[in-house]
Amino acid sequence: MIEYDRILPGVVLMIAFCVCAPLIDVASKLAAQGVPVGVVTLARYMVQGLLMAPIVWIMGLGWRMSARAFRLSLARTAVSIGATYSFISALKVMPIADALAIAFVEPFIILLIGRLVLAEQVGPRRLGASVVGFVGALFVIQPSFAVFGAVALWPLATAFFFALYILTTRALSRHMHPVTMQFHTALFGAVICLPALLLGTAMAEPTLTLIAPEGIFWLWLFCVGLAATISHMAITYALKFAPSSTLAPLHYLEIVTATLFGYLVFHDFPNALTWIGIAIIVASGLYIIHRERLAAHQARTARAVRTDGAATPASAPPA
């Protein structure tokens, strides 16, 4: 049960995540100028694994897992690699804020997967907000597509993979400590990426060629893994201290910090059409969060009434 006097540390850690997470993107964009996207992806998992291993050992967490946890960990790692590779491919040429704004359609994809695949109750208001959110993404994609071509679609792939990442994380969280989960994802990620890069090198695939970095690019690759480790530890413990319903609206702060870092490091600043799209995506996302809270409150109220032995009220329509 969440101790609500610890919500403030949770909020602070969530803000720390929103500050640190765009640094992954900054370091990735810098690294991708000198090494293939696949090498940046591999470095993210290798560095994160090396940094997480002593943390797991110091905390005295178990290394072993059940067969189901193993399968879920592999699935989580696979979609994490897909999300990472797709986003770095976009960042190589796109401004960070533009790519991130498109990727923020991920909550809408989760809703649609829940409705169409998992047969979850999703009402017309949330579905309508999802459609509006996608329209907002088109405002960002359209000018980006005109400038960068099909690369502008990579963030949509990121959103799809990250939606699956969230769903597998929810399932895996019942079987594994969150810190151990991060370590195993990093370990499996490195194990999967390395042979993929060897195969890509043999096939002369430019984005999957295993090339040793030179000079400053070693630092950028290390920073990718370092920022990933810090940001994911921050959000892991933020969710331990505070409810996800409290933290979810704060996640949109990441667009602000990503825009700031993109401007300071790369002198990129979203145009007017992109800002309109960002505003639509954020507004739609916040509305969905509001409806999710309302639906969760109605469900808790219904359970409380049944527990007290009172007559079960008529079911409220899906939010």
Helices and strands, in order, run as HHHHHHHHHHHH
First and last CA, distance: 25 Å
> What percent of residues are in strands?
under 5%
Question: For the report, how would you describe the main beta sheet?
Answer: none
Helix content: over 70%
The overall strand count is 0
Number of domains: 1
Oligomer: single chain
- What's the pLDDT, averaged over the residues? 85
Low-confidence stretches: 311-319
Class derived from helix and strand content:
mainly alpha
Categorize the overall geometry.
globular
Helix tally equals 12
Please characterize this protein's 3D structure.
The protein is mainly alpha-helical. It has one domain (4-307). Helix content is 75%, strand content 0%. The protein is built from twelve helices and no strands. Helix 2 (37-58) crosses helix 9 (216-241), helix 3 crosses helix 8 (178-202) and helix 5 (106-116) packs across helix 7. It is globular, with a radius of gyration of 20 Å. It starts with 6 loop residues before the first helix and ends in a 12-residue tail after the last helix. Mean pLDDT is 85; it is low at 311-319.
